[in-house]
Design a protein that fits this description.
The protein has five helices and twelve strands. The chain is an alpha/beta fold and 262 residues long. The N and C termini lie far apart (62 Å).
Length: 262
């Protein structure tokens, strides 16, 4: 069996300018939630911790933040952490956040997945398709089929990429549209994706999961605030997926339409 945490869309360093003086509270909460998620991985003896894109808000985040995130990761040396560049923080050249000194000197348990490929991560193979630009009409999961040819048939196959599910009427043509059968098309046991901020785990027979943002950033994200705990018993077996609530802050909408003035 292979057990792991699947997260995405952290967007650490988001400015939250619309919240004025409270913006720093929101930014700090995201780091608290990151620690809670890593703690959850350790408590559940996870074999890996995946970030399926958008760990950072963009490639212009402060060095101080990048250093702090790397320091947090270093506190969990026994936990392999795999980070995929998304559309907010694409692996787009020398100015990308992934080329910062702190990232280059990160502890050995931190792995930035900036190039496409298939990697044996001990108990499973990780098939990687990172983003190198902000927008594209090309399905980033297409290369999974080719990558799978380099993986043993008797291995658990986990894909990781970032983009919108190609649900008619719900995605933009240039938003990295991912086919709704992308996992089964490539023979994957599980496809870890990110991009949308609400939980969605019932695509392609449950083999494609969008965990949503672990820390909500809007009032309309009723199905956010989770990471996914995933267990795969063996090659070809359906994944068992459980949402783990990790959010630090609660966003509550109050309806005063029926309020009476006394």
């Amino acid at each position: 069996m292979f057990r792991f945490i699947h997260s995405a869309d952290w967007q650490l360093g988001a400015r939250f300018r619309q919240f004025g003086a409270k913006a720093d509270v929101l930014r700090t909460a995201r780091l608290t939630t990151l620690r809670k998620s890593l703690d959850a991985a350790i408590e559940r003896s996870a074999d890996a911790f995946l970030v399926a894109g958008d760990l950072f808000e963009d490639n212009q985040v402060d060095d101080i933040l990048v250093t702090e995130v790397v320091r947090i990761f270093s506190e969990y040396p026994s936990l392999p952490i795999y980070i995929l560049p998304g559309n907010h923080d694409p692996a787009s050249g020398p100015e990308a956040v992934w080329n910062r000194e702190a990232i280059r000197e990160a502890s050995t348990n931190v792995h930035v997945l900036s190039e496409a490929g298939a990697t044996d991560i001990g108990g499973a193979w990780l098939l990687v398709s990172p983003l190198h630009q902000k927008v594209s009409s090309i399905d980033p999961s297409q290369r999974m089929t080719e990558l799978a040819t380099d993986v043993p048939d008797d291995a658990i196959k986990i894909g990781i990429t970032h983009g919108a599910l190609a649900i008619e009427g719900r995605h933009k043509p240039n938003d990295f549209p991912i086919a709704l059968n992308a996992a089964s098309r490539a023979g994957l046991d599980y496809l870890a994706i990110g991009h949308w901020h609400n939980w969605l785990a019932d695509t392609d027979g449950g083999r494609i999961v969008m965990p949503g943002t672990p820390e909500p950033d809007q009032f309309d994200q009723e199905r956010s605030g989770n990471v996914a705990l995933v267990e795969i018993g063996g090659p070809g077996q359906p994944p068992r997926v459980e949402p783990l609530p990790v959010a630090t802050l609660n966003w509550t909408t109050l309806d005063f339409s029926d309020a009476r003035i006394c």
